[in-house]
Amino acid sequence: MNRLLSFLRKLALVLVAVFLVGLFYLNALITDTFESKRYALPAQVFARPLELFVGARLPQAAVLGELERLGYRRVSRVRDRGEYEVVGNRVRLHSRGFVFPDGREPARMATLEFSSASLQGLSSAGAELDILRLEPLQMGGIYPAHGEDRLLLRLEEVPDTLQGGLLAIEDRNFYSHLGFSPTGIVRAALGNMRSGRVVAGGSTITQQLVKNYYLSSERTLRRKLIELFMAMLMELHYDKPEILESYMNEVYLGQDGPRAIHGFALAAHHYFDSPLEELGLHQQALLIGMIRGPSFYNPQRNPARARERRDLVLQVMAEQGVINEEQAVVAQAMPLSVGGSRRSDTFPAYLDLVRRHLTEQYRKEDYATAGLRIFTPFDPRLQEQLELSTTRIMDALNPAGDLQTASVVTRTVNGEVVAIVGGRKPRTTGFNRALDARRPAGSLLKPAVYLAALEQPEAYTLATPLDDSTLRVAGPNGDVWAPRNFDRESHGDVLLHRALAKSYNQATARLGMDIGLPAVVDMLQRLGLRQDVPRVPSLVLGAGEYSPLMMARVYQTIAVDGTRTPLRSILSIVNRRGEILRNNITEYERAVDPRAIHLLHYALREVVREGTGRGVYRSLAEDFHVAGKTGTTNDGRDSWFAGFSGDLLAVTWIGRDNNNATGLTGSSGALRIWADFMAQAATRPLSYRMPAGVELHRVDDRSGELTGEGCANARLLPFITGSQPVRSTGCAPKSEGIRGWFEKLFGGGDR
């Protein structure tokens, strides 16, 4: 007997020791990780804010579209934040306010007055406003590997009725218990015994939070005991408001594809397209009711079941004194009011670019759980227009739907990427062709060849004759490269500007061989091409593998007069405390002689006026000046167009993923998307500004010799000072005659 008692005492000591060690471990687990789990937030990615000021070129329809995107509600009379009313050309709204990296924009009532195409009046409380910034669209999030999403809220931001309703339904004794409810446990135990298995747990809010943070969803006695002890430990270390706030940010409320919806704030946006503080009582009750079973009570799939559950919640809230009977009756009479469940990741191609830029600055485990707020130059209006143009033209070109496309749009002034289409279905995740498709660029690389030549004014000008006849170039392995023109014709001697405008392959190949491949490679790198290129003769006609984003870098440098500017998708990064971690300031680096770039601009303008890109003006107004270049690869496998106005640059590609022929040229394919988009989106044409060291001379457009105004074949061309032709046709100036498109530019302002 003594031996047995001794054994039992030792066993008891061992069990107590094991229990204490386990308790110590659980305590350490909670104290060491509660804060990190409490704030394990995905990065939020924001578009640019819409800035409203008198004189802004914003038609009323564009502002109304922005309000719709932001989830503002149109009402007959504005009372609350997130509402607007329209009376004729006047819009009255109550903005929500927002904390930007550079300061807080307060919520306020404002009145906007519009003319046909611009904002003519902006006031608040009877006083004129200099500027009003609407909150930016949250265009997506970058989530941890487990796919959870959250919007962080503070307890003081939660409506009192939502807090009271939650406690009335889930945990009436929350503020008096020590982490568990004995009566709830007894009630659950009786139910489990009746069913013969574990079907209920009687969990308090604290226990539910412990389970969500630390435990699996298995229903076993062992897990339930661990949950009980951890709940008591959590109550020892943290006060009730902290626990309730964490629960309201953590609770699971549904699924959006691969993305889990956690917390009331995100659920409000997901189900109602509204901030939590703007929800009606009936909407708050619906979210509370869904906690019991987010799928079972999903209002989109099971509306009758969800409504029954909502009305029960409202009834209990009235019985518990959270609301009165009249409020409950009114709320029960309301419809579910569920929105379209707008996904937050509706711009996957752009988010992909943001992720890649983030990986250059942070580890994924840092930026995906640190609750960063990432501000981008993404423009929802331009994105929607790019998508509309893409869909409209692609459906007309290829009703079968087996061709693919991609586009990148930037602001020429600073290299900000404002819109991206990564495929035929722009809102679908998958292969991002704008970033990852690697295709030959065809004639899109020709401007680099001509620019390298124009940097040598002693040898090449726009009036230099080039030989457009057949040629054969022997390779080191005995192969022979013999390029042909698209029309299979040779054109003899043609002036340099016309060879580029008409995209003659033979003239370009001869020019590239004359200046040398090293000069072409050097120019491509200076223009912003980062990757290695094939150092073979066919490089001058676009050989290699390039994405639309790579080509956007090259043409961005061309568009801003030879100044290289990194393309930017991130403007600022702010941590969850509101501290700015990074401000990406535009960097400028002179890469190319601006005089040579000026001459190239002339030739690229000529491309769209007289050359392969003249189809642009089937969409654009005749007096809206742009510049660009078509690109077509062998057998019509790739159709490209790159070009720019005074405010926007866009690069578009069309092709097949299997690299088969498309039957399209640059002008019959990609150009059409580009032109359709620019006709709706671009607001500033290119204007003419001649840099120092450049002067104008008239030449004979056939011989390249100087000639007089009004003489046959006379054309006004820019030349780097001192490089103009020395020979003359001898034709004296005559009457002015017909002015060409270039001469009409001189009435324009600076760009």
Automatic annotation (TrEMBL):
SUPFAM superfamilies noted in UniProt: beta-lactamase/transpeptidase-like (SSF56601), Lysozyme-like (SSF53955)
Start and end residues of each Glycosyl transferase family domain: 146-317
Gene3D superfamilies documented for this protein: Biosynthetic peptidoglycan transglycosylase-like (1.10.3810.10), DD-peptidase/beta-lactamase superfamily (3.40.710.10), Penicillin-binding protein 1b domain (3.30.2060.10)
UniProt-recorded Gene Ontology molecular function terms: penicillin binding; peptidoglycan glycosyltransferase activity; serine-type D-Ala-D-Ala carboxypeptidase activity
Matches recorded under InterPro entries: Beta-lactam/transpept-like (IPR012338), Glyco_trans_51 (IPR001264), Glycosyltr_51/Transpeptidase (IPR050396), Lysozyme-like_dom_sf (IPR023346), PBP_1b (IPR011813), PBP_transglycosylase (IPR036950), PCN-bd_Tpept (IPR001460), UB2H (IPR028166)
Location(s), subcellular: Cell membrane
Active-site residues, record numbering mapped to chain: E170 (proton donor), S443 (acyl-ester intermediate)
Bifunctional transglycosylase second domain location: 52-134
Domain Penicillin-binding protein transpeptidase: 408-644
Name of a matching Pfam family: Transpeptidase
Organism domain of life: Bacteria
BP GO terms, sorted: cell wall organization; peptidoglycan biosynthetic process; proteolysis; regulation of cell shape; response to antibiotic
Protein purpose: Cell wall formation. Synthesis of cross-linked peptidoglycan from the lipid intermediates. The enzyme has a penicillin-insensitive transglycosylase N-terminal domain (formation of linear glycan strands) and a penicillin-sensitive transpeptidase C-terminal domain (cross-linking of the peptide subunits).
Protein name (Swiss-Prot/TrEMBL): Penicillin-binding protein 1B
Native species: Congregibacter litoralis KT71
